[in-house]
Amino acid sequence: MASIQRASVSSGSEGGEPAKVDDRKRKRMISNRESARRSRMRKQKLLEDLTEEVNRLQSSNKEIVQSIKTKEDAYSKMESANNILRAQTTELADRLQSLNSIINRAEEVNGKGNGFFYQISQISDPLMNPWQQNYPFYPLMPSPNMFLH
């Protein structure tokens, strides 16, 4: 009997008042449509958020790449400046070594001590003492026709 009652209850809801069934279907359809609309809106919002994040990350990436390029250029310039300074240091060290060997050789030839420096100070250089002239000084005399030209 219980099965008969269930059948009658279920048959009553299915075939019962057609207005209630149509109203339930209509409400369910409206609810489903609203749910689908909300789902599409969430999906659209997520897509917009992800697109915005992609744009932000691409912009950040460009800034980082530009910063790296700037630093690489600065590094290259500094490296070339360092190479120039290394070459100059080597050249100056070679010159210093050469000058030291000349001084050592001169000291060996003249003997250790002040003899070498004494001989150097005795060498007269007219360019070093321009007020001491080694030639006679003759005054210049103007000629009578010097302004005629």
Provide structural commentary.
This protein has 149 residues and is mainly α. The chain has helices at 2-15, 18-110, 115-122. The termini are far apart. The model is unreliable at 5-13 (pLDDT under 50).
Distance between the termini: 154 Å
In what range is the share of β-strand residues?
under 5%
- Low-pLDDT segments: 5-13
What is the count of helical runs?
3
Class per helix and strand makeup:
mainly alpha
Order of helices and strands: HHH
| Sheet having the most strands | none
Rg over C-alpha atoms, rounded to the nearest angstrom: 53 Å
Oligomer: single chain
Total strand segments: 0
Shape: rod-shaped
Descriptive labels:
149 residues; mainly alpha; rod-shaped; transcription cis-regulatory region binding; DNA-binding transcription factor activity
Give me a quick take on this structure.
With 149 residues, this protein is mainly alpha-helical.
SSE layout:
Blueprint (H helix, E strand, L loop, with lengths): L1 H14 L2 H93 L4 H8 L27
